[in-house]
Design a protein that fits this description.
The chain is 33% helix and 23% strand. It has 752 residues and is of the alpha/beta class. The protein binds adenosine-5'-diphosphate and zinc ion (ZN) (2 copies).
Length: 752
């Protein structure tokens, strides 16, 4: 027998199958999808068996033998191999890179191993143990060992070691006399967040939940017709319970469920919710697991011991055999777009899987992405709605504070009078508050404190960004730059400031005002440790602090019944991000943060501080009126030619030298221009193309530049994308020379 093998080397040149002979000794252990060790050149490499075949199509004598299987089961399921093919054809990556997505990273190169422990058991019927103990005479430690094993069960050596000092000599004696047998047993490393969760009974469903489930349940049974559902449910409408009941239904049909959650922050809560209903039948996959935990969870799924998978975006590749549903919670989150090459959209992968393997895709959000809602409106997805909170809990009351008025009243601080008043009474009544400020690693935007306008690019209608390096304002879209104006272009006032507040500053100020109140801050800096998120949130839940200050990390999904006040310290930070999606992000974030308030018995209140209360994203968020927001935003995208009407694509270049990356970008732009010169029709589909430094010029000491393009959303433009991909490949094949790495990004989550 022969095997077609993809060797695990990410290079264009070896991106094809190689034929190897299957030695007889392994013929019953090797399947399509098995990983093997093979000779390659003068070395040994890992590879994936793509296909087994009876005959070889070329010279017998030149075919080498497979050295050994890496596992005794095929690591790749056929449906995931097909998915990898699809990723390859979409992103033009070598197949092995797409196949790698399907496995825990550490499995490659054998960097993670099955963990075992030594176990002991009596080697004779337990009824005779008394007799055996008597025979040991004065050997007390042997007696202790036998007594501990007297129940006839299996006991880890560690347990016995705790009972007997220097356990080895007496144990070795008992083993030698064949009274005790010792053997290795595999242990599974369980992630911490799933330990100690008590079972909970299903609550009776609300009417809205009932209706939505009726439709979903019939969909999983049908296995035909529309298979994508968009659940638009307000915050606190009980979407999680819908996921639980849908999961139950799918399991009852003997099929498996994948539940994707956007970020690690949400995962602990979701995991506990599911764990309390399904016990061991679930596995978790996310980046904060240790390699060993990840490997073990993956194997539990692969070997059919866990039929529910909860995880971050890469869990869409979980090796469940009989997929019945993929649920995507907070489907609007950009974390579903991967930021590593090969890039994929987990939602798109999920859809591709359910189409191929059967089952339904359920996208869920209180603030659906413009794209998904547009699909639902067009009838491509089925729209399900839950417009009310569980138990008729009211939606929180949202106040908008116009910070321009605060300035006029002489308040130059970062908190309005209203927010401070509400905070005081919240604290006095013993409840909890959350303060949200979305300060990310961006250079600050500049706005006028009198009229509230931010300084915009005259060509792009996105906010200009102040660069500390040259004190100039830059447009991150088109590269336009200008010096900081002396007065506001809109109203002539001189109160133009760079807004640069962040979580740390908020914490400082709050400490001054409320010196005795416990505060927890959550941002990238305070959550570096592996369990830091979990610990901070547990402390807040246990009411060890009354105020939680954080970035978007605290905006989503969290369910703290004692939080009655939520403050958005400066909503404009999101609104003014240099990205065409900033209104969408701002709307989503504000609705999500507001949704954290009033989830318990006491109604919630929200204070949004802004310089632009009239902006449609802020006004709609205050009303929690998604449809109003969608209509405005969709119309704007159409008018200004943004996705989904167009596509944004760029070649991102990274390297150690600033000049080289920029030079490289310029060269690629010129080559593209040349290519288009002879294709006038194609040229018409291109709205603009720029070579420039990327908005974030340097990450981890690597400089970044890009060739940014905006294309018409039209089949023709694929040819342009292919050209870009070709430039990327040519560049990467000689990376050694320039030290510049290139990657093609199509509609990426961030254009930073
Ligand atoms: P969402 O994800 O829609 O914002 P959650 O799923 O977090 O909302 O639900 C909000 C709260 O309502 C949670 O505390 C949840 O336990 C509770 N809940 C959901 N469904 C029910 C139900 N049918 N009966 C009682 N409580 C429910
Ligand atoms: Zn102004
Ligand atoms: Zn511009």
């Amino acid at each position: 027998m022969y095997a077609e093998v993809i060797v695990d080397i990410a290079s264009e040149q070896v991106d094809r199958v190689f034929t190897y002979r299957v030695p007889d000794a392994f013929s019953s252990m090797l399947f399509q999808g098995s990983r093997v060790r093979v000779p390659f050149g003068f070395r040994e490499k890992e590879g994936f068996i793509i296909r087994l075949k009876e005959t070889a199509d070329y010279d017998e004598s030149r075919i080498k033998d497979i050295i050994a299987p890496l596992e005794n089961y095929p690591a790749l399921l056929p449906q995931l191999m097909e998915l990898a093919q699809e990723i390859k054809s979409k992103t033009h990556c070598p197949l092995c890179e797409a196949l790698r997505l399907m496995l825990p990273a550490q499995m490659r190169g054998g960097r993670v191993k099955v963990k075992t422990e030594t176990c002991l058991q009596l080697n004779f019927p337990p009824e005779m143990v008394e007799e055996a103990i008597d025979k040991q005479g004065r050997a007390a430690s042997r007696k202790v060992i036998l007594t501990a094993l007297a129940d006839g069960g299996i006991h880890p050596l560690e347990e016995i070691r705790a009972l007997v000092k220097n356990v080895r000599p007496p144990l070795d004696y008992l083993i030698e006399k064949e009274l005790v047998r010792s053997f290795e047993r595999e242990v599974l490393r369980a992630p911490e967040s799933v330990r100690d969760v008590k079972p909970v009974e299903d609550p009776p469903l609300t009417e809205e939940q009932e209706e939505v489930l009726l439709e979903l349940k019939s969909a999983v049974r049908k296995r035909a017709g529309k298979n994508t559902y968009l659940l638009h449910g307000v915050t606190g409408s009980g979407k999680t319970e819908v996921f639980v009941r849908l999961t139950r239904e799918v399991l009852s049909l003997g099929r498996d469920v994948i539940l994707l959650v956007p970020e690690i922050v949400l995962t602990p809560q979701m995991i506990r919710y599911f764990r309390s209903r399904f016990g061991d039948d679930m596995a978790v996959l996310h980046s904060r697991l240790t390699p060993g935990e990840r490997f073990d969870e993956w194997r539990r799924i692969r070997l059919g011991q866990a039929r529910i998978v909860i995880g971050a975006r890469s869990a869409v590749f979980a090796p469940v055999r009989n997929l019945g549903a993929v649920i995507v919670d907070e489907e609007h989150e950009q974390t579903y777009l991967s930021d590593h090459f090969p890039q994929y959209d987990a939602r798109e992968m999920a859809l591709s899987r359910v189409k191929r393997e059967g089952g339904v895709l359920l996208l869920s959000s209180a603030t659906p992405s413009i794209y998904s809602y547009a699909m639902a409106r067009r009838g491509d997805y089925v729209l399900l709605e839950m417009p009310h909170r569980v138990h008729e809990r009211p939606m929180p009351h949202v106040n908008i504070v116009d910070m321009r008025h605060e300035l006029q009243m002489g308040n130059r601080g970062m908190f309005s009078k209203l927010l401070l008043d509400r905070l005081k009474s919240c604290i006095e009544s013993g409840q909890q508050a959350m303060l949200f400020i979305n300060r990310r690693g961006y250079a600050p935007f500049v706005n006028c404190r009198k009229c509230g306008e931010s300084i915009k690019c005259p060509q792009c209608d996105v906010s200009m960004t102040l660069h500390a390096t040259d004190h100039m304002l830059h447009c991150h879209y088109c590269g336009y730059s200008m010096s900081m104006p002396g007065e506001c272009p809109s109203c002539g006032s001189e109160y133009i400031r760079a807004c640069g507040v962040g979580t740390q500053k908020v914490e400082e100020e709050i400490k001054k005002i409320f010196p005795d109140v416990g505060i927890i801050r959550m941002d990238v800096d305070t959550t570096k440790g592996r369990n830091a998120h979990f610990d901070l949130l547990s402390r807040f839940r246990a009411r060890q602090a009354q105020i939680l200050i954080g970035t978007q990390m605290i905006a989503k999904g969290l369910d703290f019944p004692n939080v009655t006040l939520v403050g958005a310290v400066l909503a404009d930070l999101t609104l003014n991000l240099p990205d065409y999606r900033s209104p969408e992000r701002a709307y989503q974030l504000l609705v999500q943060v507001a949704g954290r308030a009033g989830r318990g018995d006491v109604p919630g209140e929200v204070v949004i501080q802004t310089y632009k209360p009239e902006h449609y994203a802020i006004a709609a968020a205050a009303q929690q009126d998604y449809r109003a927001f969608f209509n405005e935003e969709f119309a704007r995208r159409r008018k200004d030619l943004y996705p989904p009407f167009t596509r944004m694509a760029r070649i991102l270049l990274e390297g150690e030298s600033a000049e080289k990356v920029l030079h490289c970008a310029e060269k690629m732009r010129d080559e593209m221009a040349q290519f288009l010169q002879v294709k006038p029709m194609l040229k018409k589909r291109l709205f603009f193309m720029r070579a420039d430094y990327a908005p974030i010029q340097r990450i981890q000491n690597r400089f970044r530049a890009h060739v940014l393009t905006k294309l018409l959303n039209h089949p023709d433009t694929d040819r342009l994308l292919e050209k870009m991909q070709q430039l990327v490949q040519e560049n990467n094949e000689k990376t050694g020379e320039s030290g510049v790495n290139a990657a093609l990004e199509i509609d990426p989550a961030s254009l930073a």
